[in-house]
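User: Need the bound-state model for inosinic acid:
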Amino acid sequence: MLRSLDDDIEEILLSSEEIQQRLAELAAELDRDYAGKRVILVGVLKGAFVVMADLARYLRTDVEFDFMAVSSYGSATQTSGVVRILKDLDRDIAGRHIVVVEDIVDSGLTLNYLLRNLAARHPASLEVLALLSKPDQVRVETPVRYHGFAIPNRFVVGYGLDYAERYRNLPYIGVLKPGVYAEA
Ligand code: IMP
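Assistant: Bound-state model below.
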């Protein structure tokens, strides 16, 4: 029988229902905080596109979408802190309210770099929403205003997060079976 992606998962850390409920709560917070304002959601590709798509549909705030793609040099499961912009924003953000949408903050190095880069463009405000963080790991101060869940220091996949570009389409967050790494 064809093996499904689910068969590669050792443990589910966050179910689809838990994620959806938390996103709805975060959307309600954003709606309160940005009442009467127009916001640009900046998704950090590729992982955040799933978070952004679901979050945006709970929001009633007037939002525009834009995306950045960055790559951090390093091995598949470890960031080096050196970040390269592969795709920049389509538009100028001077004077605009920006909410950066991230899938996960691990060392915080990627986010830290992005925030410095975006702040230099003089937005009216700049905040971060991150679905996940690994609290043990954070190496640099990361001002995440809207935070989904703290997870243990394990490599996770699903809900936008990949291992070697796979598993992004799983609707939950899970941990891979060790055998999957061995096969790669
Ligand atoms: P940081 O710079 O260490 O905070 O790493 C942030 C980026 O590394 C995230 O946007 C993800 O793309 C990737 N990343 C960190 N931890 C994981 C994980 O557990 N699974 C999948 N990708 C991860």
